[in-house]
Amino acid sequence: MERSTIVRVHEGLHARPATRFVKLAKGFESDVELVKDGKAVSAKSSVKLMLLAVKENQEVTVRANGADAIEAIEALIGYLENPRAGLDDENEPGEAGSETAAAAPAPEAAPPAAEIPKLQGVAASEGVAIGPAFAHFPPEIEGPGRRLQADEIEGELERFRGAVASVQARMDRTLAENNLSAGDRGIIAALRDIAADDSLTGEVERLIKGGDDAVSAVIAAAATIAADFSAVDDHYLNARADDVHAVGRQICLVLLGQDELSLETIPQGAILIADDIGAWDLARAPLKRIGGVVCGHGGATSHIAIIARSHGIPAVLGLGDKVNELRTAREVAIDGNAGHVIVDPDQATRADFTRRVEAAAQERAGLKVFKSVTPTRADGTVIEVAANIGSLEEIEAAQEAGAMGVGLFRTELLFMRHMHLPSEDMQAETYSALAKAFAPHSVIVRTLDIGGDKPIAGIEFPDEENPFLGWRGIRMCLDRPDIFKRQLRALLRAAVHGNIKVMLPMVSEIAEVTRTRALVAECAAELKAEGVPHADFDLGVMIETPAAVLIAPALAKEVAFFSIGTNDLTQYIMAADRLNPTVAKLNDVTNPAVMSAIELTAKAGVGAGIMVGMCGEAAGRPDLIPAFINMGLTELSMSAASIQRAKKTIAAMTTER
Ligand code: PEP
Ligand code: MG
What we know:
Blueprint: E1 2-6, H1 15-26, E2 31-36, E3 39-42, H2 46-51, E4 59-65, H3 69-80, H4 98-103, E5 119-120, E6 122-125, E7 128-136, H5 153-177, H6 182-196, H7 198-209, H8 214-231, H9 235-238, H10 240-256, E8 270-274, H11 279-284, E9 290-295, H12 303-310, E10 315-317, E11 331-335, E12 340-343, H13 347-368, E13 384-389, H14 395-401, E14 406-410, H15 412-417, H16 424-438, E15 442-446, H17 474-479, H18 481-494, E16 499-504, H19 510-530, E17 538-543, H20 546-550, H21 552-555, E18 561-564, H22 566-574, H23 592-608, E19 611-614, H24 625-631, E20 635-638, H25 643-656
Parallel strand pairs: 7-8, 8-9, 9-10, 13-14, 13-20, 14-15, 15-16, 16-17, 17-18, 18-19, 19-20
Antiparallel strand pairs: 1-4, 2-3, 2-4, 5-12, 6-10, 7-11, 11-12
The structure holds phosphoenolpyruvate (PEP) and magnesium ion.
């Protein structure tokens, strides 16, 4: 017996409505299937249902076979035809009172957002805001472009060194005196490092010795180094270009005897609009008064974004030249989730945003209770909701959000930030600080994941046609034991201070694990002989290549855990470059091919009794989390901003059963 209908469930059968639909179906004895485009899946499996990807307004058929088939079809069709079924109200379908609850929020008079002209930027810090525009466009600094006489060079070098010293001293004073959060302090310390770094000062001095005036030399050197960061195929490292510009600007201002335009006068709730704001300036600004940030420069991983996120300020960055359209704006509305900016909104948009700001404040307040929640599966297994971080300055935001440890510490920044290979001591210090900060939770440190697409000083990379298929991650590390052993020794030393786990990126064969184990043993023996305290750590692998998925059952016998890297796994499974917007549609983790790869991995890991986690972007998606938990994943690692919502999603799964 079967009946077809058009799905009216708001936004289709995504996670929550799918779970409810399954619950409803399970209430009947009959076998029930849902059919879409000729494909039938059991209506009693939420994973299968979600993978069927039933969207709003699509035609589906409910098929039932059994004693209560008529009733089952009746109830399930009724659910599919209810537009409110997909909405996140607390009432279960069919419960008395659900209609009243659904009717409560009066439909908004505002036109759909799509009709409002808006500027599109990078969604860098979530949340919505509306407020008076505060345009902050300090004039560009231009070098005089003066050629120095030979006898002026020594004096100009002195002037430059004095300016660097003065910028560093000012940063030191800020670090010592101001009421900075630990996160902001870390960012300023990183900027001070750049100011002191030989690559910048050395290049400037070389240009001055060649006859350039100091200001022109700083601008040129900063541009060269920033361009190196921008050329890298890694958004974390791209974001450091803005830091180099910011430091260069500070040095130039001292050389010119000028002060930066102040942010002190920003009114309460205003939206700060700028082409670029140095993290240095933003960290010292009256952040409590800033309602939102819009910038021409920057991206989701720039320091401005990190500061904005850690202070809960919505931000849209990377608008490019379009930011100039905001110079004369009076009022601005921003949507930090979608990356939208609306200039001088009309009344309906204003009402819409005001309502969303209030709703978001309520949601935030509601989510806070999940900070200290330890989410569990229905069988009581704890689901670790951990943080992805790339630097020590992100620790505070992760802890504030309620992170149960770190599921991915990307070590690339450590190697890039200082523009030379970091020493074993420096690495040990960093990993130890992380281990201590999150003990007794685990901190999963990923070994260096760098390749021809992300050149770093100290490693010579060959020219490659396809760097993403080339000498990167574990492949490069195993060929450069000098670099790899330094990192492994640092990790063994840090393991004394907490629960350090180590994972290998880009693994595609078992030999990569066994060879790493041999190196770890070698390092441990050396440390022992040297009398250096150290401890063993769990070794795991990222599952991010199709090869790793296909050998997962064998791989699972060799390692302590899997962590699924959906960002790379999606691009390699779909053969669709994750950085190429032309194939962005294919680069979709919900594609059945990718979801099947995840399921295969989970099955292999769970079957072997090892922990299976996920650290790709998909781990923080509330619409997918139920599917991942149902597959057997027990650890999800994500950006701090997603943690409380993820905990809520998991908690809701247990109560909905
Ligand atoms: C991934 O590939 O999913 C991942 C987490 O690593 P990255 O984004 O650093 O490549
Ligand atoms: Mg990856």
